[in-house]
Amino acid sequence: MEIALPLAIGVLVAAAAYLLMARDLPRGLLGFVLLGTAANLTIFAAGRIGTMTPPLVAPGAQALEAGAANPLPQALVLTAIVIGFGLASFALVLLRRAHAEFGSVMSEDMQEAEPPLAAAPPAEPAPTPPPARPRPVPAPAALREVV
Amino acid sequence: MSIAPSLALGLPLGLGLAGAIAATMMKRGVAQAGAAVAALAFLLYLLAAPGVTETTDLRFGFWSVPSLGVVGGLRLDGLSLVFVLLITGIGALVLLYASRYLKGDTRLPRLVTLLLIFMVAMLGAVTADDVVTLFVFWELTSLASFFLVAYDHEKPGARKAALQALLVTGGGGLALLAGLILVAMAAGTTSLSGIIAAREAVLAHPAAIPAMLLVVLGCFTKSAQFPFQFWLPNAMAAPTPVSAYLHSATMVKLGIYLLARLNPVYQHEAFWQELLTTAGLLTTAVGAIYALRESDLKRVLAWTTVTALGSLTMLIGLAPALSATAAVTFLLVHALYKAALFLVAGIVDHETGTRDAAALGGLRRAMPLTALAAVLAALSMAGLPPFVGFVAKEIIYEAKLATGGAAGLFASIGFLVNAAMVAIAGLLSWRLFFGPLRPTPATPHDPPKSMLAGPILLAGLGLLAGAAPSLVGAWLVDGAVAAMLGAPAAVPLKLWHGFTPVLALSAATIALGLLLLLAWGRLMPRLRRASAFDRFDTARLYDRALAGLVAWAEGTTRLVQHGSLRGYMQVLLLVAALGPLAVLVARGGLDLPEAAPLDFRALAFLPIALGAIAAAVARGTLAAVMATGLVGFGTALVFLTFGAPDVALTQFTVEVLLIVILATVLIRLPVRARDVRTGRQRTVDAAVAGALGLSVALVLLAVLAAPFDPRLGEWFGAESVPGGHGRNVVNVILVDFRALDTLGEIAVLAIAAFSVIALLRASGRGARVGS
Amino acid sequence: MDASLILRVSAPLLLWVPAIVSLYLLIRGHNEPGGGFVGGLVASAGLVFFVISRGRQAALRVMRVPPAGWCGIGLLLAAGSGLLAWIDPAAGYLTHRWWFPDVGFKVPLGTALLFDVGVYLTVIGTITAMVFALVDED
């Protein structure tokens, strides 16, 4: 159990990372959601797993019986799930706004504040044509005017 | 008569600062007020002068930071006295001059403020007795110079010149800081007088030579020595009063000041002597040649200033009593005539509308008083008796001839350079004011008294000092020489030395200079066309270095900010993968946890792993969303089977909501159905992703193999009912034990909601979620 | 929204059943699985279905107060529940107080419940704000 769950989490993290590096933002968003799930599972596992008994005190008892699950990681994960959902929704709203603004969901097409991609070191052929909006002048060129 | 050191040393600085602040609020008479402040400071120093002799000084405000081993304060000795009198005296005249020169300029208050700040900085620098105070004021002069050169900041040329001056002097300042720290460490004290007293320790330190080189580098950049001379002529973009004050009389001599100040430490070191004399000699030659290539009056003067600064450096390097006397005398003389000539050049520019020497001539009749000042100053510059310039030149020749082996070289280069100076002096007096009147853009006439006062007074002082050199010697030079050499040793100043070889040399200099003057009209354009001088100009090195820096910055920016989100993610994820792995390896490899045997519950892991892989390789976005949902439900299942019903319930609800929302939204976007990465990109990404997955799995295994401390969970389990009156321990933790954390978390949620509402409002679309 | 007839007809059912369930989860949360977070999520699920089937305006009418208001009330309630702790000046902020009035059997009343209601309202406000933003443009 203690070996199988980390391996499953490893697969989950790898998939999340693979999606995060995608060039379209919807896939990146899914990667973000999966990474959050992986983080929650990691916290849960780090608090030790094994028992199936929930951390509920039996009626009439004063203390949690020995052998119940560790309640602390559960409390942490519970709020983390809700916050992760809130952030994913927020990212989705941003994605909608970006799509309305740029007419695309490709990260390459959203380069308002970046230098032209043509000079990027991983010189890969861009399948999408570069957008027509004017590129901002990169900072060093602005410095050149002064010196 | 005597004056309290606190008044003489502290008050001028306070007055200057108060004046600088007051100047920002004044509307009228601001430059006159500034001049009054400077004059008052001059008077205070003058009153203190009797207390400063070859063997006595004034001290004030000594402070210390024992934890840093820093002690310091202000100290007025012979060398400082020469400087403070020049700074305040010329400062007063320049400010008075500026009141007319920049009349009606709305930026005048700013100029006065900056000039007064500069004056305070200079006074602080030359009276500081510790390297920390000295350095702070030193840098302040560079800053003030930057703002003053960039006075006409709408002009690109002025901005460029200001930046150049700042980079060269500021870069030298960094070297100086390092050098001063090394010297102070070697001496065991930051006090300048202490460093001089600890001369042996400073020289014996292993880093003595690098320390000296760093200090000298700072001085050379500040005083425009070769190869850093190029910034000074460019700094002529500043208004003329600024050029006269900062870039001829005072600031550029700060490097000379520090060389002279530290001379007692290094004076017997052959390396110091050779470095200073060589650089000085080269600088004089470069300055003289380039001065003959210019026709802009201010640039001509700037290059002659470079020559003069070279002479001073060389004289300090020559070391014996004679050359020290020559250095101090020449320092005084040069400040007087050069400031006067700059102010004359400003008047000519102001009144005629041009400062091109080739286009000017015969101004004597139109502006007789200006002509008088120019002639007096020029005679001093040319080194003719009875002017103090003659005294200085004689003694410089004497010093050069007394150097022994290299005397011939020094004297012959000095001879040629001096002849060039004679020619320039002639250019600035004879050619400008005599001969046929040439037409100018404006009709020339003498300026008002406030503008004439400076040049006439300064030029006249040159004549008076020449007439009574021994008085000047006793009063100012001797004390400064004693400070430069560490002991009283000045050679008496005389106007008339009798018929000596030196006198013959002087006469020959003047003769050659007059020949050069006659040929100037043809010589200057030819020298200017000679491109060899441009090719070997060290300004090119500066330009190339700066261009290289910018290119490097561009390259770095492109490398690390290439604009590809995918690239950023790759770097981030790769670091996240390799960092923990490196720690794991460094800690001695991997321990596997003791694992319970797999049972049916392990089936719950399957949807997670399978869903994750499916989401990654899904062709369409909707399929990827569904696979993501599968992972979520699998996760809920894991929570449920391992005793976390609350978490499972939450995860389950969230997953339902997420899938509904994602499907609703993404289905409406005209989303490219396929992952658009190329095959090669997928391979690279899969490798990075695999590395991260492996790293996380291994680290988690290592974590689970470590012993676990269950006390925290047990405490919550035991306290939940008695303390929190609730049997659901998870809920009690959330709403009671860690309620403050939960409050923060729901605040985050609310902020996210408000952000969405604001985002929609800002976009101006129909959505009005909040209303 | 071009929701199907089935969805439109069943929308009130999909709204009110989760709402009642969510209240049940909220109340029992202190002793059994449940609580403000889960309850809020379940109630939001009902509202999300309602928004998708009936539109934003209809949902807003049901909610009476816009989502931002739910967030604000929830935050204030949660933050305010901690203030009652200062009935005992020595207690720290958010130390919950309990009363056990006897109405035949003991009813446990605590400020912790108030806090959980705050969480519940904030979660509902947040999620409905997001959903309103996402399904708005049509």
UniProtKB/TrEMBL annotation, chain A:
Q: Where in the sequence does UniProt note compositional bias of the Pro residues kind?
A: 118-139
Q: Which UniProt keywords apply?
A: Cell membrane, Membrane, Transmembrane, Transmembrane helix
From the Swiss-Prot or TrEMBL record, state where the protein is found: Cell membrane
Bilayer-spanning residue ranges: 6-22, 29-49, 75-95
Q: Where is this region: Disordered?
A: 107-147
Question: Does the keyword Oxidoreductase feature in the UniProt annotation?
Answer: no
Principal subcellular localization = membrane
Name the family: Belongs to the CPA3 antiporters (TC 2.A.63) subunit C family.
Q: What is this protein called?
A: Cation:proton antiporter
Which organism is the protein's source?
A: Falsiroseomonas bella
Lineage of the species this protein comes from: Bacteria, Pseudomonadati, Pseudomonadota, Alphaproteobacteria, Acetobacterales
UniProtKB/TrEMBL annotation, chain B:
Tell me the ranges covered by the NADH:quinone oxidoreductase/Mrp antiporter transmembrane domain, including all copies: 128-411
What InterPro entries does this protein's entry cite? CPA3_Na-H_Antiporter_A (IPR050616), MrpA_C/MbhD (IPR025383), MrpA_C/MbhE (IPR046806), ND/Mrp_TM (IPR001750), Proton_antipo_N (IPR001516)
Annotated compartments: Cell membrane; Membrane
Which UniProt key words apply to this protein?
A: Antiport, Cell membrane, Ion transport, Membrane, Transmembrane, Transmembrane helix, Transport
Coiled-coil ranges (or none) = none
MrpA C-terminal/MbhD domain location, by residue? 608-670
Where, by residue number, does the polypeptide cross the bilayer?
30-48, 82-99, 111-128, 134-151, 163-189, 201-221, 242-260, 272-293, 300-322, 328-348, 369-388, 408-430, 451-476, 496-520, 567-586, 598-617, 624-642, 648-671, 683-706, 746-764
Q: Which GO terms describe its cellular component?
A: plasma membrane
Membrane topology annotation: Multi-pass membrane protein
Span of domain MrpA C-terminal/MbhE: 681-761
**In this protein, which residues make up the domain named NADH-Ubiquinone oxidoreductase (complex I) chain 5 N-terminal?**
67-110
A single Gene Ontology MF term assigned here is: antiporter activity
Gene Ontology process terms (BP)? monoatomic ion transport
Q: Which Pfam families match?
A: MbhD, MbhE, Proton_antipo_M, Proton_antipo_N
Supply the name of the protein: Cation:proton antiporter
UniProtKB/TrEMBL annotation, chain C:
User: What keywords are annotated for this sequence in UniProt?
Assistant: Cell membrane, Membrane, Transmembrane, Transmembrane helix
Its protein name is: Na(+)/H(+) antiporter subunit B
- InterPro entries this protein is in? CPA3_antiporter_subunitB, MnhB
Q: What is its main location?
A: membrane
Topology term for the membrane: Multi-pass membrane protein
Q: Which organism is it from?
A: Falsiroseomonas bella
Q: Which family does it belong to?
A: Belongs to the CPA3 antiporters (TC 2.A.63) subunit B family.
One Pfam assignment: MnhB
One GO term describing the cellular component: plasma membrane
